[in-house]
Design goal:
heterodimer; A: mainly alpha; 6 helices; 0% strand; rod-shaped; B: mainly alpha
Chain lengths: 143, 191
């Protein structure tokens, strides 16, 4: 009975439709059309198979990582990479320098005034005699 | 003229070679799998033209996935089986009716005599009816084994069961078919 059953099943299998030449050629045409190596060079990156499905690149890089380029003005490309941290560090440096000069410079100017000198002396202008009266540093006795 | 070397290659290797731009690899895959896709679709849809559309679409999806195919995760044959089944299911939903295996049109062979043809057709119809009466999983295993010419491990992967379970399903299906057909043997001209 097993052999008869096998024969019957084989007979049914033989009745199943077989792919004809037209179907085979349609499928083969699909395969040729979609073969990665056959993708047009403009799409596939010079037609190399490995580049046919290159990973999608982001439209823009993140702002913190933007490299300044010629298109932003100034003729030469800068290699400085800007980021939030470097901007904050630069700002802190400016603030520190301002505080240092603001505190240190008056400490040096005041003793000079006590000696009868002025800021003009420090900058190299010679005294001509009336500067003390004009600046209010001289006393009435001296005038 | 294809070399024997490429004919003997594994499906996954052929797919990789196709993805690398080798058309001969696609031809071998077409020869191996189109018949199975067509037969499977024909059994589900009962219409040759629709079955051809499904087979072409299934193979089209194979070409599309070729560059991303990950060898070792699935077999090409089982992947194609599932794609074909899903495409047929979608087609049947659209059509609004299920084509039964029993409704498949007869393939008339006009070379033998008329009585022989009648006996053959009756025999075929009886076997088809007996297969249609099998439980779903037994029927599926039997069809995959005898009509799609798949190995037991392939069937196991498709049905997501063990090879031993496939063997059990096949044995039960054959026993049930034998029991059903034994009553009809004399009527069908068997001795």
């Amino acid at each position: 009975m097993d052999r008869q059953l096998d024969t019957l099943l084989a007979g049914l299998a033989a009745e199943m439709p077989r792919p004809d030449a037209a179907l085979i050629s349609r499928i083969a045409a699909d395969a040729d059309r979609l073969m990665p190596g056959q993708v047009p060079a403009s799409v596939a990156g010079l037609g190399r198979p490995g580049l046919a499905r290159a990973p999608r690149q982001p439209v823009r890089e993140r702002i913190s990582g933007t490299r300044r380029s010629d298109s932003r003005g100034f003729g030469r490309r800068s290699d400085v990479r800007w980021s939030g941290w470097s901007s904050a560090a630069a700002l802190a440096g400016c603030l520190l320098a301002g505080v240092w000069f603001g505190l240190a410079a008056p400490g040096k100017v005041l003793p000079l005034d006590r000696l009868g000198e002025t800021g003009l002396d420090m900058m190299g202008f010679p005294l001509i005699g009336a500067e003390d009266a004009l600046s209010g540093v001289a006393t009435d006795r001296e005038i | 003229m294809r070399s024997n070397a490429i004919e003997a290659e594994d499906d996954a290797v052929l797919l990789a070679r196709y993805a690398a731009g080798e058309p001969a690899a696609a031809r071998v895959l077409i020869d191996r799998h189109t018949g199975r896709c067509l037969g499977q679709a024909y059994r589900m849809l009962g219409d040759r033209a629709e079955a051809e559309d499904i087979a072409q679409e299934a193979m089209l999806r194979l070409w599309r996935i070729a560059p991303d195919w990950r060898a070792g995760e699935a077999m090409v044959s089982t992947w194609l089986f599932r794609v074909t089944r899903n495409l047929c299911t979608d087609r049947l939903r659209r059509r609004g009716r299920m084509a039964d295996f029993e409704d498949a049109p007869e393939q008339i062979d006009d070379r033998p005599s008329v009585p022989e043809t009648m006996v053959r057709n009756e025999r075929g119809a009886a076997v088809r009816a007996a297969i249609a009466a099998l439980p779903d999983r037994q029927r599926q295993a039997l069809q995959l084994r005898h009509f799609d010419d798949m190995s037991n491990p392939q069937i196991a992967q498709i049905m997501e069961i063990s090879v031993e379970a496939v063997e059990s399903l096949l044995a039960r299906a054959r026993r049930a078919l034998s029991a059903t057909l034994s009553d009809l043997r004399e009527d069908l001209g068997e001795r």
